[in-house]
Each structure stands twice: as structure tokens, then as C-alpha cells.
Amino acid sequence: MPRRYIVGITGASGVIYGLRLLEVLLQQQTEVHLVVTGPGRIVIEQEMEWDMQGDWKAALRANLPEGNIAVYDDADIAAPIASGSFRVDGMVVIPCTMASIAALAGGYARSLLERAADVMLKEKKPLLLVPRETPLSSIHLRNMLLLAEAGAHIIPAMPAFYTHPATVEDMVNFVVGKVLDAMGIEHNLFKRYGEP
């Protein structure tokens, strides 16, 4: 069975990180279950200039590589990924807003994204959160600490410069590569420190 991951895209700036991760996963024949929040759709439209007003699911598919992907609305609380009996290898929320971090830290599970992430924590499955916010308040930091203590892996969207990035794509690839490392998925998105 191919690896199966849930990917969540929220309304933080930096949706390019989530979209690049989707490209890599689909190219590697990973089964992807994508949930996009309403604010996530707004940011995709603003930052990528994709038309997300009409059939936004078709717009997403048209801009991604062919692959095994199911796309869910955040309001679809009856989707399979809302259940702990639906087997997945883990979940990545990329980018992850501070509002989503707060909801997950509080265990609210009011939407599909929140419920799927809550399931990851209760089932002790990998939950990777990629916050993209600065500066961080003490509330943000406390919420991330609560989630880390509950088993979530916090991977801030912080590109490195020892790779000598020449383009925005290079910086995006570094962050996505770090996420893939945490998922245990091989890639060659950036040159590792100390490698020729």
C-alpha cells in the first residue's frame, strides 16, 4: 500500500510551502488527503493568483501534478480523515496559522482540519505543524509547547542560508525538504550541510 498522508493548508502566508509539498508527494506516488480551510483558499488566490472562487477543488487539481489526491472542504466533518479508524501515516499542516495552533492546543476539533489533527494526537500518529508567523507572542509559544508536549512536531518555516539559496524556490525547497525529512521521505530538494 502506498504511503498515505493528510495535508492541511490554512490561511497563513506561505501557501507555496504546502503546494510544493503536495507536488513532491504526488510525484512520489503518495496517497494524499488534502483539506483546505476557507482562509487557506483566500491566501492561495492572493499569493498564487489562482481562481478559487468557483470550483476551487478543480482549480487546485489543475495546478498540481497528476496523482492520487482527495480534496476536502474544511466543513466536511464526515470525511474519512475525521475518524481514527481511517489509517494514515501522518498529517502535515503547512502553512499553519496561529489560530489553528490555538485550536489544536485547545483540542477544539470544530472543523475537519482540527478534527483530523486531533485524531493524529489521540492515535499517536505523526502530526507535523509548519507555523509561518513572526513575531511570536508568548501565547503562540505556549500553544506550540503544549502541542509539542502532546506529540506534535513543530517545524517552523525558517529557510537556512548555508545552502546558498539563489531563488525563492531554493528557500521553499529547503523548508519542504525539512518537512520531508521529518516524514522519513527521501528527497533531493537541497544540498545537505557538509555534502560536496
Can you give a write-up of this model?
The termini are far apart. Helix 1 packs across helix 7. With 196 residues, the protein is α/β, with parallel strands linked by helices. The chain has a single domain, classed as 3-Layer(aba) Sandwich (Rossmann fold), CATH 3.40.50.1950. A six-stranded parallel beta sheet has the order 3-2-1-4-5-6, with helices on both faces. The protein has seven helices and six strands; from the N terminus they run βαβααββααβαβα.
Average residue pLDDT: 96
Biggest beta-sheet profile: 6 strands, parallel
- What structural class do you assign from the helix and strand content? alpha/beta
Poorly predicted ranges (pLDDT <50, ≥5 residues)? none
What's the architecture in CATH terms?
A: 3-Layer(aba) Sandwich
How many helices? The count is 7
CATH class: Alpha Beta
Helix content: 40-55%
Can you list the strand order of the major beta sheet?
3-2-1-4-5-6
What is the third-level CATH name, the topology?
Answer: Rossmann fold
Distance between the termini: 35 Å
Tell me the series of helices and strands, N- to C-terminal. EHEHHEEHHEHEH
How would you describe the shape?
A: globular
CATH superfamily: Flavin prenyltransferase-like
The share of residues in extended strands comes to 15-25%
| Total beta-strand segments | 6
Gyration radius, rounded: 16 Å
How many structural domains can be distinguished in the coordinates? 1
